[in-house]
Design brief:
The chain is an alpha/beta fold. The chain has nine helices and nine strands. Helix 5 packs parallel to helix 6. It is globular, with a radius of gyration of 19 Å.
């Protein structure tokens, strides 16, 4: 069966969050298209995701549209067609961490202070919050160290701490552990799990299927810019319905 026919045959419920999301505040996308050079790089007929907590994973091979979807949800780009409906008229605060985060050439504490100051938080309150945020990132001993002197894992945790310092309701993460060794990656995963437990809705793209199993409550599988399957864990991985997801989980679908 051609992929387009397989995608079109998906029932609407196949691209909904699943029973675990009933009653949650939900973000809905309908007929959303992003085009580049005359080609649709993202085409989402329908997708909904709860934004009252939990972790939603975006999975798929390179070029599937995961980063484009994250940038779209943050507002860095606009759709060429379709609608994005948030649960209320006021769009909730969002923070995004891209694959190559940029840290200021300052201390770890000063990097957090910069974000808090931009939010209008007083100097006294900033000092207290910096301590709390760095503690959550397991960086309290690095407060006065220049960010450029931190290890790769510490830099990634600091970048994630910067995103959390924005007090987002929705946290968008693009391959947050890419290039990290397993120990450093676990530190980042711990922060993501804590953010979700604090009620932040996390939407994360990841090539690490083990990481997806550890963190995610639900996932959307994209291929060639189109949604193929979505659903809660563990059923999505344990009982794939499409040949594309089956091949991806076996490592046979790489692009």
């Amino acid at each position: 069966m051609p992929r387009d026919d397989a995608t079109a045959s998906l029932m609407p419920s196949a691209l909904s969050p699943g029973a675990d999301a009933v009653g949650d505040a939900t973000l809905q996308l309908q007929n959303v298209i992003v085009r580049r050079a005359g080609r649709d790089i993202l085409n989402l007929p329908e997708w909904s995701v709860p934004i009252s907590g939990g972790v939603t994973a975006l999975i798929g091979p390179n070029g599937a549209g995961k980063t484009t979807l994250l940038r779209l949800l943050h507002g860095l780009i606009k759709p060429d067609a379709g609608t994005i409906r948030w649960p209320t008229d006021t769009i909730p605060p969002r923070a995004i961490l891209l694959q190559s985060p940029v840290l200021l050439r300052r201390t770890a504490a000063a990097n957090i202070d910069f974000v808090l100051k931009r939010r209008g938080i007083s100097k006294q309150q900033r000092a207290k919050q910096i301590t709390q945020i760095l503690a959550k990132a397991r960086l309290e001993d690095c407060a006065n160290r220049p960010a450029r002197h931190l290890s790769g894992g510490q830099k990634r945790r600091l970048a994630l701490a910067q995103a959390l310092a924005q007090a987002p309701r929705v946290l968008l993460l693009d391959e947050p552990t890419a290039g990290l060794d397993p120990t450093a990656a676990i530190g980042v995963e711990h922060m993501i799990a804590e953010a979700s437990a604090d009620g932040i809705a996390v939407i994360v793209s990841s090539h690490e299927l083990g990481q997806v199993r550890r963190l995610a409550d639900r996932a959307l599988f994209l291929h060639a810019g189109k949604p193929i399957e979505a659903g809660p864990f563990p059923s999505l991985f344990d009982n794939p319905k499409s040949r594309e997801l089956t091949a991806f989980l076996k490592g046979d679908l790489t692009w």
